[in-house]
């Protein structure tokens, strides 16, 4: 290909219901925060153009429903992801404990080529809420989850407030960098596997509709 | 450079009076064979208006110099005279017609007078009998004129490629700038109109009252009697086409084609070109849409211009339909949709007439359905048919819904219903007390999790409605149908928040619900979570509950109505999502069957999983429609009038309505998903209801035809003892769509210790 395509980086946001996935995305893309987002049903995405390492890239950020059972239909948009953001709520211990399942679920469903070093990042949201409501001894618990050696969630962690716009920009900058690396890695490996934006040759089998992929 | 000088024309010369460039003959259906040329009016030496030549001259028969001349005349003096646009303006023949001065720049060799040679033709006006003017319309992208000569010959049809003709474009632009893209008669401007306007300066034309698109050229009295009888007899003139303004649709549609047709093939890098083109060609209203910051943002945000354009096209369509709404009868919308669906051969006019939308059922009408004892005096089917086609007015909605959801039996009397309500209240109270009094249960992780889920979602459901907004003043009196029977639930529930503690922090503590209505919804859902213990609460249920609550405002009745609604919706929420998958598979089959071209396109877009329908199906379009429209749609779906799966036909109608935009503009999974998601709050219920009903009827007819064909073939086969070749199998998924029985799928038993996720 002689004509260089604009880089599109696909980012998936996962995490328990109500941790603030939609708010994080809205704050980053539109610089706004509403008190009353509706619970996300299905999936949707927003895009934003940013510059990473002097390169203009388009982040395509996918927001998903938080209730676990709704993930089983998510295969379609996990494909081709360049980075996955695992979110929890700093006032909700369960959402922190669930991070590992979210990661596992993602790897199973996305079928990425390099599960060992696929880029994940962790975001603890709602740090604007008063200290007394936060998870007791949060940093210790977080440490336990991230430093379990092999299999632990040894990924960059950001604490953010989508409401007060704290650290959101910084987190997404890192996300973009990681995603870009992943994307380039895919390209080097001829990464058709996880890049559905290539002009792949479509082979259509006559009379054999591939049916519903859900 | 003034070429104006008095000089006689040679016999072989004519003076061009009027030229329209970029008109085409379409000798075959292939675009490659199109012949481009000029349509002109010209005058030879010593000639009257009747001798004026009407000619089509292909560009390839002209020298470069001549082409220049023709083009110059085309765009030369289009200082736009609005009066020349008004059809029938034969009286104000402008000076050129009688001018004795000859502009040498307008003088060209006389067009071949032979009627037809090498695709050119030329005839004098006196030899023309009639001209049929066919405006651009959805059937034909280009407007055209058909010229009939006096000896009954039909000249080749001349098509106006408005998007290429500099003068047409320029005129359009001027009109748009004046914010007046229509002539005085409200008709849209296009090249053929321009031409007719010019023609009418030189010769008298009469519009046929029998076929309004036909103009008789210089008709004599016999012609007028035959083709314009009303006028001739001085009879009262029948008003033609009372709805003039909807022509805006064609105008907008024409503009849309111009850009979209060209742009559909553009790649992402062409975004700027696209914007330029829009700038150049789009009529003012569209420019206004485009200049909206959010629309521009979409363009900037997204790498590909396609989604942007698709959205634009959708807005154009929307504007058009909005204007239609005001000026067209439902039947007209219906006819349009029916035409588009191509179902006229499949459906009888009787069936078609049945489908038009009717007025909603008023309180008076509803009450007239019942006898003195409050028992229904119509058949259930009659009532349902009425609801299906009209819906019910808000004043009587609560009561109708209780019947539709079968909280009230259809054959009950008023007295029986009163007794029933009391027993519903008692039963609900008992259910609720079970969890209220079960301290142990309320300590389990599952219960706490579920309660948290419910509270979190309640807090973010329909908060834009006044009823669910937090009041600054506490202690709002709750007035509801049942407030005296079930005084206040606050005392009965141990979770009752202490109202004095309520502070601005409540947004962080989801369990602190201060709005009394939200609080009742919470009680209902916690009770439901216990009542249907296998399923429990699942995200999305608050969306299903809130319309019921708002209508009834009675905790016990809302609860029971909700359980009835959930009977049919349970399959949407089961843990393994099999119910949703099944519906999406069915929709996939239905799409293949009904809209095969769109299906093929979606296949190319890797979108046949129809994931974009997930939200729509899960909560029955609650997130896609405005509040009032949700209420209307649901009561229609609850009738199961044709099928219990009408929501799938409604989904199909949305796709069908957007088919062209999708096919022309969207090529990728993410583009399709974005486009469909963003239809939210932009859908118009009534046209979609009509479309979905037609789609159903068409579907049913197709199945009938196939069944009939199959049975004929089977007879043949048994005789010839051959295999079932040629038998078209209709799968169970599709056949199931014809049933009215509600599809029930219950959640499997919840294992001990299993979470509610």
From TrEMBL, chain A:
Is Lipoprotein there in the keyword field?
A: yes
One GO cellular component term of this record is: multivesicular body
State the signal peptide span: none
Chain segments annotated as coiled-coil in the UniProt record: none
GO biological process terms, alphabetically, are: cytoplasm to vacuole targeting by the Cvt pathway; endocytosis; piecemeal microautophagy of the nucleus; regulation of protein-containing complex assembly; regulation of vacuole fusion, non-autophagic; retrograde transport, endosome to Golgi; vacuole inheritance
Annotated family = Belongs to the small GTPase superfamily. Rab family.
Q: What is this protein called?
A: Ras-domain-containing protein
Q: Which organism is it from?
A: Suhomyces tanzawaensis NRRL Y-17324
Automatic annotation (TrEMBL), chain B:
Listed Polar residues bias regions: 479-491
Coiled-coil portions: none
> What is the protein name stated in its UniProt record?
RabGAP/TBC
PANTHER family on file: SMALL G PROTEIN SIGNALING MODULATOR 2-RELATED, TBC1 DOMAIN FAMILY MEMBER GTPASE-ACTIVATING PROTEIN
Q: Which SUPFAM superfamilies did the record assign?
A: Ypt/Rab-GAP domain of gyp1p (SSF47923)
Keywords, A to Z, come to: GTPase activation
Residue ranges of domain Rab-GAP TBC in the record: 391-641
């Amino acid at each position: 290909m002689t004509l260089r395509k604009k880089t599109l980086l696909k980012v998936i946001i996962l995490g328990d219901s109500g941790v603030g996935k939609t708010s994080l995305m809205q704050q980053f893309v539109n610089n706004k925060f509403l008190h009353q987002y509706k619970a996300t049903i299905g999936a949707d995405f927003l895009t934003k153009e940013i510059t990473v390492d002097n390169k203009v890239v388009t982040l395509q950020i996918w927001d998903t429903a938080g209730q676990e059972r709704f993930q089983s239909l998510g295969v379609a948009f996990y494909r081709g992801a360049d980075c996955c953001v695992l979110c929890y709520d700093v006032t909700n211990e369960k959402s922190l404990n669930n991070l590992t399942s979210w990661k596992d679920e993602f790897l199973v469903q996305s079928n990425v080529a390099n599960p060992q070093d696929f880029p994940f990042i962790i975001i603890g949201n709602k740090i604007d809420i008063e200290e007394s409501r936060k998870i007791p001894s949060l940093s210790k618990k977080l440490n336990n989850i991230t430093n379990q050696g092999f299999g632990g969630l040894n990924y960059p962690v950001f604490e953010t407030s989508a409401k007060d716009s704290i650290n959101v920009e910084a987190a997404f900058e890192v996300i973009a960098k990681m995603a870009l690396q992943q994307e380039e890695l895919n390209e080097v490996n001829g990464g058709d596997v996880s890049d559905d934006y290539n002009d792949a040759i479509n082979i259509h089998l006559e009379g054999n509709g591939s049916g519903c992929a859900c | 450079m003034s070429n104006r000088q008095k000089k006689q024309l040679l016999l072989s010369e004519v003076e061009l009076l009027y030229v329209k460039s970029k008109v085409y003959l379409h000798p075959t259906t292939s675009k490659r064979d199109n012949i481009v040329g000029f349509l002109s009016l010209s005058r030879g030496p010593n000639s009257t208006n009747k001798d004026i030549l009407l000619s089509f001259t292909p560009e390839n028969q002209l020298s470069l110099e001549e082409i220049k001349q023709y083009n110059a005349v085309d765009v030369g003096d289009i200082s736009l005279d609005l009066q020349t646009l008004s059809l029938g303006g034969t009286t104000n023949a402008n000076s050129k017609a009688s001018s004795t001065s000859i502009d040498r720049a307008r003088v060209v060799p006389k067009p071949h007078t032979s009627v037809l040679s090498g695709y050119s033709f030329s005839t004098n006006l006196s030899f023309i009998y009639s001209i049929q003017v066919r405006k651009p319309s959805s059937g034909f992208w280009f407007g055209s004129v058909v010229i009939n000569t006096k000896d009954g010959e039909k000249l080749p049809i001349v098509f106006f490629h408005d998007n290429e003709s500099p003068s047409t474009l320029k005129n359009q632009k001027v009109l748009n700038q004046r914010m007046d893209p229509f002539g005085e008669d409200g008709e849209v401007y296009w090249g053929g109109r321009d031409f007719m306007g010019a023609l009418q300066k030189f010769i008298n034309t009469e519009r046929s009252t029998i076929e309004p698109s036909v103009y008789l050229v210089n008709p004599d009295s016999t012609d007028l009697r035959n083709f314009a009888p009303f006028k001739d007899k001085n009879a009262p003139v029948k008003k033609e086409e009372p709805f003039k303004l909807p022509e805006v649709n064609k105008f907008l549609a024409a503009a849309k084609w111009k850009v979209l047709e060209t742009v559909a093939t553009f790649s992402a890098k062409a975004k700027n070109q696209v914007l330029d083109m829009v700038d150049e060609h789009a009529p003012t209203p569209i420019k206004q849409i485009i200049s909206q910051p959010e629309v521009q943002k979409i363009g900037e945000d997204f790498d590909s211009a396609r989604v942007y354009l698709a959205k634009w096209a959708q807005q154009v369509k929307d504007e058009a339909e909005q204007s239609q709404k005001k000026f067209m009868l439902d039947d007209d919308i219906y006819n349009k949709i029916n035409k588009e669906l191509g179902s006229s051969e499949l459906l009888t006019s009787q069936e078609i007439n049945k489908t038009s939308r009717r007025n909603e059922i008023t309180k008076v009408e509803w009450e007239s359905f019942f006898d003195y004892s409050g028992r229904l005096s119509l058949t259930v089917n009659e009532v349902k048919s009425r609801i299906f086609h009209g819906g019910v007015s808000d004043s009587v909605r609560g009561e109708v819904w209780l019947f539709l959801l079968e909280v009230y039996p259809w054959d009950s009397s008023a007295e029986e219903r009163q007794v029933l309500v009391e027993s519903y209240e008692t039963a609900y109270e008992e259910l609720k007390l079970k969890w209220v009094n079960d301290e142990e249960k309320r300590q389990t992780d599952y219960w706490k999790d579920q309660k948290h889920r419910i509270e979190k979602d309640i807090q973010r459901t329909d908060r834009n409605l006044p009823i669910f907004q937090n009041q600054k003043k506490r202690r709002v009196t709750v007035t509801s149908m049942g407030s005296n029977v079930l005084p206040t639930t606050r005392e009965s529930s141990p979770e009752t928040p202490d109202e004095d503690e309520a502070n601005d922090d409540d947004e962080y503590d989801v369990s602190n619900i201060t709005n009394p209505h939200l609080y009742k919804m919470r009680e209902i859902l916690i009770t439901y979570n216990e009542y249907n213990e296998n399923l429990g609460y699942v995200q999305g249920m608050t969306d299903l509950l809130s319309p019921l609550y708002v209508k009834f405002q009675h905790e016990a009745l809302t609860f029971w109505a909700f359980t009835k609604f959930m009977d049919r919706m349970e399959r949407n929420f089961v843990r393994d999502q099999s119910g949703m998958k099944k519906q999406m598979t069915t929709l996939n089959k239905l799409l293949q069957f009904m809209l095969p071209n769109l299906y093929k396109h979606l296949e190319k877009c890797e979108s046949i999983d129809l994931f974009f329908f997930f939200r729509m199906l899960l909560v029955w379009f609650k997130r896609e429609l405005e509040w009032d429209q949700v209420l209307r749609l649901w009561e229609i779906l609850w009738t199961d009038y044709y099928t219990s799966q009408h929501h799938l036909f409604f989904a199909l109608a949305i796709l069908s309505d957007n088919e062209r935009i999708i096919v022309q503009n969207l090529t990728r999974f993410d583009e399709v998903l974005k486009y469909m998601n963003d239809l939210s709050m932009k859908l118009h219920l009534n046209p979609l209801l009509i479309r979905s009903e037609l789609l159903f009827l068409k579907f049913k007819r197709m199945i009938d035809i196939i069944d009939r064909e199959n049975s004929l073939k089977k007879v043949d086969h048994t005789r010839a003892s051959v295999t079932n070749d040629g038998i078209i199998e209709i799968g169970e998924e599709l056949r199931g769509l014809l049933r009215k029985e509600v599809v029930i799928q219950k959640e499997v038993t919840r294992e001990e210790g299993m979470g509610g996720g």
